[in-house]
Predict the structure of Chalcone--flavanone isomerase 1.
Amino acid sequence: MSSSNACASPSPFPAVTKLHVDSVTFVPSVKSPASSNPLFLGGAGVRGLDIQGKFVIFTVIGVYLEGNAVPSLSVKWKGKTTEELTESIPFFREIVTGAFEKFIKVTMKLPLTGQQYSEKVTENCVAIWKQLGLYTDCEAKAVEKFLEIFKEETFPPGSSILFALSPTGSLTVAFSKDDSIPETGIAVIENKLLAEAVLESIIGKNGVSPGTRLSVAERLSQLMMKNKDEKEVSDHSVEEKLAKEN
C-alpha cells in the first residue's frame, strides 16, 4: 500500500441545510431504518399533476444519500453545473445504481390508500424495466410483494412512506404517521432492480418529481465543487509536508 493511501482519511460528512418544500420540512440528515447509517439530504421536491388547469400536489419527496456518494460521483461529475447535471441521464443513473445507501421520504399532502400508491409506483417501475429490457419473473415476484405490503395501508396528509435502498440491493419499507423516522422497517424486499426503479421513478428521465431531480442536481453540483476544492487543498498540504520532510 502506498503512503498516500495509508494516510487517506475518510470523506467528511457533507454539511447541508434543511429544505422547506410546500410546508414540509426535510431535516439535513437522518438515520437509515435499514442500517442506522447517517444520510444527508440530497434534495427535495413535489409530485403533482395538472388537473383542469390547476397544479395539484399529492406528495412531497426528500432524497437522502450516504456521505460517500459525493466523492464517488465527483470522479466523473465534479465541475458540472446544475443545468448540465439536471439534463444528464447518465448522472442520475449513477445515483440510482451507485454503491452507496439511499433513503427516500414521501410525505402525503393529500390522502392516499396504499393500493393507489403502490399500483402507481409499480406501474412506473415496470415501465422502466421494460424500457431497459430487464423485466423477469424475479421482478414480477418483487412487485407482488411490494403490492402486498401496501394493500391494507392508508396514508392521511402528513404521514410518510419511507424507502431505504442498500448498496447490496435490498429495499426496506417503513411507514410513519408523523414526521418521525422509525428505527427499523416493516418489510424488506431483496430485489436490486426494484430498489433502483423506485428511486429512478422519482428522479430519473421520466420521473414523477422534476423538482426533486433539479434539487438533487443543484445540491450535488455544489457539494462536488466543495469536495474538489477541499481535496485540492488537502493534496497541496500533503505535497508541502513531503517537501519539508525531504
